Amino acid sequence: MIYDVIVIGGGPCGLATGLALQEQGLNYVILEKGGIVNSIVNCPLNIRFYSTSDRLEIGGMPFLSKEERPTRQELMKYYQSVVSRQSLEIKCFHNVAKIIKEPEHFTLQTINQHGNSIHYQAKMLVIATGIFDHPRQLNIEGEELPKVIHYYQEGHHYYGQRVMVVGGKNSAIEAAIDLYRNGAKVTLVHRGESAYHGIKPTLLMDIRNFIEKGKIEFLPQSNVLRIAEDSVLLATAKGTVSVENDFVFQLIGYQPDSILLKNIGIEMDESTLVPMFDKDTYETNIENIFLAGVVTGGTTNKVYIEDGRFHGAKIAEVIKKRFRRMNIGENQRLKKES
User: Fold this and answer.
1) Residue 7 contacts by C-beta under 8 Å, 6 or more apart in sequence?
2) Would you call 124 exposed, middle or buried from its count of C-beta atoms within 10 A (0-12, 13-18, 19+)?
3) Would 140 be classed as within a structural domain?
4) In this structure, how many other beta carbons lie within 10 angstroms of the beta carbon of residue 255?
5) Are residues 48 and 167 in the same domain?
6) Is the separation of the CB atoms in 188 and 219 below 8 Å?
7) Are 166 and 72 part of one and the same domain?
8) What InterPro entries does the database record attribute to this sequence (predicted)?
9) 29 falls within a domain
10) How many structural domains comprise the chain?
11) Of 16, 24, 160, 215, whose CB neighbour count within 10 A is largest?
């Protein structure tokens, strides 16, 4: 069986793309390497999203949460209901290991949860893999140690531990606050001068209070040089210092799966990892391969679910028109031959 379209990625934007393809009457399947909306599953357990529920809706299905901003659990339940009610065609725990471009279609080699290799074929692809599965690296000694963690879920496990949080964006600030409230001894390391700029207003008062009262040690204008089993070596504004440490939360952002994209010939801006694609159609420099969702923003943090959820509708329109032209051309060819 050759599908019209395969969507790689079962996050909110991938699901929205599947809904749009379904509405256009196209034969499709979504391949997801984990469970549906896996990036949301890996969010902090008690997170309340900054986006309002209406800005996270897909497929025109209303999303009602108890408060204006939904919790992680509410959002997961919402997307589960969308998949169930709309009977989306999705294969979970199918990791796309390789994409082969054939003359008339694409062949995808996937590995399922049992380690079995399964092949799928489609005439067109939509890559909606997001960025959350690929944490950015510092490329320093000790980064591979088990004590280095790239995702934060909850703080109870780290009660009484010497914990360092590296980063200055919302995820890092939120983790530092929660770790302190769960009894960890927290050091916040940021390469910038302040931890107060560009973060959610809901976090600003707490982080300012904790830093100014010395409850969280803040080391601005600092970079991690080396991570050891019981310490971290830093370059700070006051010189090189060694900080005793049990765990490091390296929360410096995420990036697209550049290996997957480059292996099939998609060009990228090396500084931002923004893939090359047409801003009107979302088609990449490789014909019949499209991008949807957060992956289109690279490491710029300029594309979120709120924006990416609309990409699929445009892509589905473009693909539907292309199939229509292809069918017309094929019918004309057959008439000439007869």
Assistant:
1) 14, 17, 18, 21, 28, 29, 30, 31, 125, 126, 128, 292
2) buried
3) no
4) 17
5) no
6) yes
7) no
8) Bdr (IPR023856), FAD/NAD-bd_sf (IPR036188), Ferredoxin-NADP_redctase_2 (IPR050097)
9) yes
10) 2
11) 16
Angle, helices 170-181 vs 201-212, to 10°: value is 50
* C-beta separation of 249 from 190 below 8 A: no
User: At residue 114, what are phi and psi to the nearest 5 degrees?
Assistant: -95, 0
Residue range(s) defining the domain that contains residue 21: 2-134+254-337
Q: Assess if residue 171 is contained within a domain.
A: yes
CA distance 316 to 303: 19
DSSP label at residue 133: T
| Whole-Å CA distances, 116 to 1, 111, 120, 204 | 19, 5, 13, 48
Together in a domain, 225 and 275: no
CA distance 42 to 220: 28
- Interatomic CA distance for residues 247 and 104, integer angstroms: 51
Q: Which residues touch 168 (CB under 8 Å, ≥6 apart)?
A: 190, 191, 192, 195, 198, 199
Is pLDDT of 108 > 60? Answer: yes
Predicted pLDDT of residue 334: 54
Per-residue pLDDT of 14-40, as tens digits, reads: 999 999 999 999 999 999 999 999 989
Residues whose CB is less than 8 angstroms from the CB of residue 246 and which lie 6 or more positions away in sequence, other chains included: 147, 158, 161, 162, 163, 230
Mean pLDDT for the stretch of residues 43-59:
92
- 207 in any annotated domain: yes
> Residue 202 belongs to what H/E stretch?
helix 201-212
Domain identity same for 129 and 152? no
Q: Point out the domain boundary residue: 232, 250, 268.
A: 250
**pLDDT attached to residue 264:** 95
Alpha-carbon gap, residue 19 to 58, rounded angstroms: 8
The CATH code of the domain that includes 190 is 3.50.50.60
User: Using CA atoms, how far apart are residues 260 and 244, in angstroms rounded to an integer?
Assistant: 38
Mean pLDDT for the stretch of residues 145-171: 96
d(CA 195, CA 172) in angstroms, rounded, equals 10
Domain boundary residue, one of 250, 272, 292: 250
Please tell me whether residues 123 and 165 are part of one structural domain. Answer: no
